[in-house]
Amino acid sequence: MIDIPGTPGTVTGLVLRISQCVFAAGSISYMVTSGGFFSFTAFCYLVAAMGLQVIWSFGLAILDTFALVRKKTLLSPVLVSLFVVGDWVTSTLSLAGASSSAGITVLYFGDLGSCSFEAECWRYQLSVALAFLCWITIAISSFTTLWLLASA
């Protein structure tokens, strides 16, 4: 297998996983601290998708840390296949949650003008922005692991 920045078990891979975890946790925290996110299904879906992303990214960050400390490689074809499937599933779920939440945010709070609390609208928008940043880092990891699997 070739050496690509962002591969599992490298420093850049660890940075990608930590940034995924931080962006997803930030998205969850801003959404949950707003008052009535339970009223919108898309917002609830975003919280669920980002929760799954936090679990997946945190687990792989721990695995990357272990590989770096022990100087092990995580490039076995079975392990890379698992990373590809997990990354693509969480990437699809995160993009769907971020896109649907962005649509609801624009529709209700921009087009319909039904945002009476400015701080609440600001939290929804920031949560969606962090979800998209999380998705960008997941997409990088997804393409990296797919490239690794294809080059094996």
UniProtKB/TrEMBL annotation:
Keyword hit for Nucleotidyltransferase:
no
Domain named Casparian strip membrane protein is located at: 7-136
Localization in the cell: Cell membrane
Membrane topology designation: Multi-pass membrane protein
Q: Which UniProt keywords apply?
A: Cell membrane, Membrane, Transmembrane, Transmembrane helix
Matching entries from Pfam families are given as:
CASP_dom
Q: What's the superkingdom here?
A: Eukaryota
Do you know which InterPro entries this protein is assigned to? CASP_dom, CASPL-5
Q: Where are the transmembrane segments?
A: 37-63, 75-108, 128-150
PANTHER family for the chain: CASP-LIKE PROTEIN 5B3
Q: What quaternary arrangement does the UniProt entry report?
A: Homodimer and heterodimers.
Q: Which family does it belong to?
A: Belongs to the Casparian strip membrane proteins (CASP) family.
Q: What is this protein called?
A: CASP-like protein
Q: Which gene encodes it?
A: LOC104788164
